[in-house]
Write a structure and sequence with these properties.
Belongs to the intradiol ring-cleavage dioxygenase family. The protein has one domain: Sandwich (Protocatechuate 3,4-Dioxygenase, subunit A), CATH 2.60.130.10. The strands form two sheets. Strands 3, 4, 5, 6, 7, 8, 9, 10 and 11 form a nine-stranded mixed β-sheet that branches. Strands 1-2 form a two-stranded antiparallel ribbon. The N terminus is likely disordered. By secondary structure, the protein is an alpha/beta fold. The radius of gyration is 17 Å and the shape is globular. The chain contains three helices and eleven strands, in the order αββββββββααβββ.
């Protein structure tokens, strides 16, 4: 129990310190007024942003060249758009995505998490660019929870002179209420940060849709 408590404290301190990026504190979610969309709420970078990108950064996090089969866990399909406050598509946005594997373990030397092993077939990170209509899509597996955290996926978006660091959450997860970063968001922020479930792929698994609204435009 002592090890778990120390690990939780370390993660919370690291996450809190990571709220400061480029010398500026991350801004809270804004309310939508007059038809203007509320920006996606900023959230912690977290302690497990990759120190060095992996050799593969494509849009399928569940496959690694040279490894047999796909990563363990429930298959996940994520799609969405990058938009400005007026709902206009932002093309060419640079989108970094990283997450824990199905066991709640990050592919990061700083994660000594005892919740589960590394998965050699899990890429854990992707570098995407939004299309002409602002769209993006990637395949992965459902991230596992770990001490103090509900399943979530990290994003870092650079577009139109704006940088957003945020996290995407999943509806209906029993640990959402216990997650200190999710709970810290206002009601509107939790809605904006939570992906919408859509029809699951024919092959099974889970599919979600999540739009990213930047505070620009």
């Amino acid at each position: 129990m002592k090890t778990v408590a120390v690990d939780l404290l370390r993660r919370r301190l690291l996450a809190a310190s990571a709220l400061w990026i480029g010398g500026s504190v991350l801004i809270p979610v804004a309310r939508a007024l007059g038809g203007v969309r509320a920006p996606t709420p900023a959230n912690a970078l977290g302690p497990f942003y990759p120190r060095h990108p992996p050799a593969e950064v494509d849009a399928d996090l569940a496959v690694v060249e040279g490894q047999r089969g796909r990563a363990a866990g429930t298959p996940l399909s994520v799609s969405g758009r990058v938009l400005d406050r007026h709902g206009r598509a932002i093309a060419g946005a640079r989108i970094e995505v990283w997450q824990a594997n199905a066991y709640g373990r990050y592919h990061h030397p700083g994660d000594g998490n005892a919740s589960g092993p590394l998965d050699p077939a899990f890429q854990g990170y992707a570098l995407l660019h939004s299309g002409g209509n602002g769209s993006f899509r990637f395949a992965s597996v459902m991230p596992g929870p770990y001490t103090g955290r509900t399943p979530h996926i990290h994003y870092l978006i650079d577009a139109a002179g704006t940088r957003l660091v945020t996290q995407m959450f999943f509806a209906g997860e029993p640990r959402n209420a216990e997650d200190f970063l999710y709970a810290a968001l206002p009601d509107a922020g939790r809605v904006a940060a939570t992906a919408i479930d859509v029809a699951a792929p024919a092959a099974g698994g889970r599919a979600v849709q999540w739009d990213i609204v930047l505070a620009t435009g």
